[in-house]
Amino acid sequence: MSKLKKAMSLPVVFSLVFAAAGCSSPSNNASTSATPASGSTTAAATQNADASKTGEQNNAKKTKLIFWDKSEYVKEYNDSQKERVAQFSKEFNVDVEYVAIPPADLKTKLLAAVEAGNPPNLLLADDFVAKQFVGNNQLVEISDILKKYDFREDSKKYAYALEGWFEIPVYHNPNVMYVRKDKVAEKKLELPKTWDDVKKVAKAINDPKNNFYGLGFQLGGGGDSNGRIENLIRTYGTDLVDKDGKVTVNTAEALEALKFDTSFFTEKLTPPGAITGDDSWNNTAYLNGQVGIIFNSSSVYAAMRKEKPELLNNTQIMPWPAGPKRQFGSGGGTVFVMFNKGKNIDNAKKYIDYFFNKDFYGKLIEKLNGLAVPVLNGYENTEFWQKPENKGWFDASKNIVPLGDPGPPDARASQVISEYILPKAVQSIVVNNTDPKKALDEIEKNYKRVYEKK
């Protein structure tokens, strides 16, 4: 656990420089085969025959690719990506700088780089982070790449925006509810299926004197807290925006949902650090045996399999709960984007081809134990995804609602998440004793500022 936590704390930069004795400078052909690892070796050898005659010229032609990636909670992901980047660097004679950045820091660093006119050539990030760069003409159009691969239809929703096609789906991130079934059994209760059940169970198993709390919910920066509050509001019957992007959040049902979420914190069903906890905070709290219920991706599941098998045996993985009126799945997508001010777009496209090599891609996804579910067709019926412990994750990826649903799939949906509008409203109620109606009015005001420019 400590190694994983440490790996997430700071950006990790791998500058990979190879002599690449077998390759010359890469071709600028964007239509490289989807399996270049098998098809490019012969070409590389041919290129080497020419390049060996003029070594100095070969070095002069060497290009650089700057690739920013999010650091995943499952360490194996970045290790595999680092190894793949090294192979690409050597095979195509490209100097690659691979930077793994904690998700909580990625937006700030991206905004600074874009403002300075020096964005990375290639970015792999959560959909809601990437989408905020669509509306201001920062990204490369990628419809040609989408046509090259057999994407699942439900994967393409991450690529689509009103402005066009700018995001390349990489993997689905389904979220589930983790419940300490041993704690629930001790109280002779049923596992929670609704939001009311969640609170009932949390109150029953809450034991602050022994540093155990019913809920591992948080209000700090990140997508987890926003996703929980939005899901709660929607299950109470209110959409935050309608299909045309008109803000519809200010309803009596939304007010009740906001009060309900606030009660988790005011009734001390969460640890003290929950008020400022970020997206990795709830992972750590659950893995340390401090909380009884969290909502998260399979990063927690993968960590338990590796480090906490006893905790995994005492954990029930369940769908997100139903509200008084509706029930929704949860999750998101991870995508590739390329910035149009990047200085090496051709090699960025070439690496995307290299990444989607069938063998590498399939094995990478499997290593993540459900954290990532394939966006390409042809994997669902493999032995790995048909195993009972994995099939549920794949099925959960089919029910994820699009970012900003039911509103338009554009950068506005990303912006309201990145500004933490919903968590800040609940924080204000909990910390400053703000009237819940005023907090809801503030949510409406901020949503209109983004969606309706008011």
TrEMBL record:
It holds the Pfam family SBP_bac_1. Transmembrane segments: none annotated. Residues 28-49 have a biased composition (Low complexity). It comes from the Bacteria. Residues 28-57 are annotated as: Disordered. Residues 1-30 form the signal peptide. Keywords: Signal, Transport. Gene3D superfamilies: Periplasmic binding protein-like II (3.40.190.10). InterPro entries: Bact_solute-bd_prot1, SBP. Belongs to the bacterial solute-binding protein 1 family. This is ABC-type glycerol-3-phosphate transport system substrate-binding protein.
